[in-house]
Specification:
This protein is an alpha+beta fold and 196 residues long. It contains 4 helices and 10 strands.
Length: 196
């Protein structure tokens, strides 16, 4: 089983996060940020990755450090759980329709970081409860950086801001499910013989 757990404490956040890449998409969240939990639940459900997250952050300031640090820890967990990546499919992509929104997420677990977003300006979509809409990009960027992946997110079109955010997280889950699946344990998915 590809299971990893991290406990991380800084002056801004305290995080205990456990994942199981070979799970059933079950999750338990205690973050004090309801919208963030709602988005993470989509990643878990659609990737099949079990997640158990406890998060406390300096919410008296805002949610920035909490969401950013969760992205960092999730990325590290994914990278560690994948190990040498032998046998994985490596690439993942999914185009997800959600009512009037259409979103594509494509990723490569290459060991190299790159993040690109194209679509409506998420930073100008206001708040979802205490969650600032711009934090979705912050989370995705830090997740990709610390997972050492290429991550490309394209929102083709859409109007409803909730649907736009939700479609991104759902498509991310679907793309991750494809990329982390084991196809042949005797094969490294690179002509170099390694991924780093």
């Amino acid at each position: 089983m590809r299971i990893k757990e991290i406990e991380r404490k800084t002056k801004e956040t305290y995080i205990k996060f456990k994942i199981n890449l070979d799970g059933k998409g079950e999750y338990t969240f205690d973050t004090q940020i309801p919208f963030f939990e709602h988005m993470l639940s989509h990643v878990s459900k659609h990737s099949g990755i079990d997640m158990n997250l406890f998060l406390r952050g300096d919410l008296e300031i805002d949610c920035h450090h909490s969401v950013e640090d969760t992205g960092i820890v999730f990325g590290k967990l994914l990278s560690e759980a994948l190990g040498d990546k032998k046998g994985i499919f490596r690439y993942g992509h999914f185009t997800l329709p959600m009512d009037e929104v259409l979103t594509t997420v494509a990723l490569d677990l290459s060991g190299r970081y790159h993040f690109k977003y194209r679509g409506p300006n998420l930073a100008k979509m206001g708040k979802f409860g205490i969650y600032d809409s711009e934090l979705t990009l912050e989370f995705l960027e830090k997740f990709a950086m610390h997972a050492k992946m290429n991550l490309h997110v394209l929102v083709h079109y859409g109007k409803n801001r909730h649907h736009i955010h939700e479609s991104i997280f759902k498509a991310l889950g679907k793309a991750l499910k494809m990329a982390i699946q084991i196809q042949d344990l005797d094969t490294m998915p690179s002509t170099k013989g390694m991924l780093e």
